[in-house]
């Protein structure tokens, strides 16, 4: 099928590459000329494991996508046109739809009759109708359909999530679009392809066995738009729930890891997204929960659970500062190392990253902050030129002479750290604040650290009695 993808960010580029890999003819449009120039040579502008290899592999099958900044070339190409531009939050929490509006105008000019225009961007409920109205207004003679196809991929495992999704959701205005989208997604629904091994995750074999066929959920446009917002809000709420319970564990002396193991094994609850810690960040959760709050408020409905989900989350970042203050009293003049900048492992994405808030708060209190991240440091330097931190390329150099080390992002590299080596090069208080509860408290204490987790009792080795 001939597919156009507008926007070559995380979602657009992964979608385009996977469709090309599945044998479709794909044309990609972006307004960012530098990005498009690089992509023509197979250069990936984001960090997403193995995306470069999968894109390269489409050369051999003659399906390497067209990358262009020419709207006519890209849009007139598509029987189906995916919109995958950003919908960043405005200061009041509403999503900014200016990119979506620009897309609708461009599509109205260049789309062919019977095109299906699909929102893959996360957009407020009602945006399908709004896009339809904008296009119809700009080009009253064009025959077209609008659909919604929310995206659930996770940065860092985006290829796997696209090729082996838990479900595909589409919202359409009738049978024409529904049938065409079912046809487009058939190779995925039926799992009729053989992906290179680098597209798999360790749990692939089980996942594949469980997913001989992918559920295809076809509904109306408004319900599809609500599915995306409620899915993200639910996941965010699950983490905030774990964090709220972690804070109560801190008070009563229980261990949150044990508690969540205990509740997660209940199949009605499920073990995923119950990891307590510094809380969620990234481009989606905060934006989507706030957007759903705004939607509810438009109808004069008070969505208390959603507001609490955000409040609990953002308080966790301050809790890190509070825990350090409890241990070190005065932070002025203290040397603190942050392990991790990206909002989660396996990505260079710093949108709404807790590390940025934590670093700023520590600097404000007079601490000297040094940071490390396996991938996100160049992005951080570029995007936050005023952030007064010291970037250190080697993690063991980073921790040298530091009073406290704060684990912010649970990269595998940090799980694999030689903690004895870290401990011996630190200074003063030798605090290990484990913001994601990845280390074993007793082990950290045995080495000598003052170990502080999130929702688990602080541990330190007791001096031997003489
Ligand atoms: P992004 O910012 O990485 O990419 C957006 C791209 O669109 C950029 O390359 C930008 O230059 C381009 N663009 C903007 N206006 C354009 C226009 N008029 N014509 C052509 N190109 C244009 O965004 P993203 O992270 O890929 O997110 C896209 C959408 O998908 C958002 O609504 C987001 O909420 C949603 N989403 C994102 C994720 C994720 O993990 N990133 C997951 C699910 C859903």
Polypeptide structure, described:
This protein is α/β, with parallel strands linked by helices. It has 2 domains: 2-219, NAD(P)-binding Rossmann-like Domain (Rossmann fold, 3-Layer(aba) Sandwich); 238-452, NAD(P)-binding Rossmann-like Domain (Rossmann fold, 3-Layer(aba) Sandwich), CATH 3.40.50. The protein has 20 helices and 14 strands. The strands form 2 sheets. Strands 3-2-1-4-5-6-7-8 form an 8-stranded mixed beta sheet, sandwiched between helices. A 6-stranded parallel beta sheet has the order 11-10-9-12-13-14, sandwiched between helices. Helix 15 (354-364) links the parallel strand 9 (335-339) and strand 10. It is elongated and about 85 Å long. The chain starts with a strand and ends in a 14-residue tail after the last strand. 45% of the residues are buried. The model has no long low-confidence stretch (mean pLDDT 95). The chain binds nicotinamide-adenine-dinucleotide (NAD).
């Amino acid at each position: 099928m001939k597919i156009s993808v507008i926007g070559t960010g995380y979602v657009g580029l992964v979608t385009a590459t996977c469709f090309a890999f599945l044998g479709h003819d794909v044309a990609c449009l972006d307004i960012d000329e530098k990005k498009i120039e690089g992509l023509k040579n197979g250069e990936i502008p984001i960090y997403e494991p193995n995306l470069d290899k999968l894109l390269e592999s489409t050369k051999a099958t003659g399906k390497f996508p067209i990358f262009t900044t020419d709207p006519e070339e890209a849009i007139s190409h598509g029987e189906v046109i995916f919109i995958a531009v950003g919908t960043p939050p405005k200061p009041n929490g509403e999503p900014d739809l200016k990119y979506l509006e620009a897309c609708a105008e461009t599509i109205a000019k260049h789309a062919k009759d019977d095109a299906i225009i699909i929102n893959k961007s996360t957009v407020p409920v009602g945006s399908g109708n709004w896009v339809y109205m904008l296009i119809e207004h700009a080009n009253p003679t064009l025959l077209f359909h609008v659909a919604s196809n929310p995206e659930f991929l996770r940065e860092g495992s985006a290829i796997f999530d696209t090729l082996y999704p838990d479900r595909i959701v589409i919202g359409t205005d009738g049978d024409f679009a529904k049938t065409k989208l079912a046809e487009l997604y058939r190779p995925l629904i039926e799992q009729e392809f053989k992906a290179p091994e680098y597209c798999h995750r360790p749990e692939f074999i089980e996942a594949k066995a469980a997913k001989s066929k992918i559920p295809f959920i076809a509904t109306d446009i408004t319900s599809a738009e609500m599915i995306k917002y409620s899915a993200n809000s639910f996941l965010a709420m699950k983490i905030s729930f774990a964090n709220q319970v972690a804070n109560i564990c801190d008070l009563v002396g229980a261990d949150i890891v044990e508690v969540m193991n205990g509740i997660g094994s209940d199949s009605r609850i499920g073990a995923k997204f119950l990891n307590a810690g510094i809380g969620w960040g990234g481009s989606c959760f905060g934006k989507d929960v706030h957007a759903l709050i705004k939607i509810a408020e438009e109808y004069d409905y008070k969505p208390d659970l959603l507001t609490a989900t955000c409040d609990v989350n953002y308080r966790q970042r301050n809790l890190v500062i509070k825990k350090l203050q409890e241990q070190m009293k005065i932070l002025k003049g203290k040397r603190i190392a942050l392990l991790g900048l990206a909002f989660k492992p396996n990505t260079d994405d710093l949108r709404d990253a807790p590390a940025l808030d934590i670093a700023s708060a520590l600097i404000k209190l007079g601490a000297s902050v040094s940071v490390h991240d396996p991938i996100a440091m160049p992005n951080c330097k570029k995007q936050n030129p005023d952030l007064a931190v010291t970037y250190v390329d080697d993690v063991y150099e980073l921790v040298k002479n530091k009073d406290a080390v704060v684990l912010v992002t649970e990269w595998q590299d940090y799980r694999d750290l030689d903690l004895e080596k870290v401990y011996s090069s630190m200074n003063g208080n030798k605090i290990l604040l484990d913001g994601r509860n990845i280390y074993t408290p007793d082990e950290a204490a045995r080495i000598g650290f003052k170990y502080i987790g999130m929702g688990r009792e602080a541990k330190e080795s007791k001096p031997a009695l003489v």
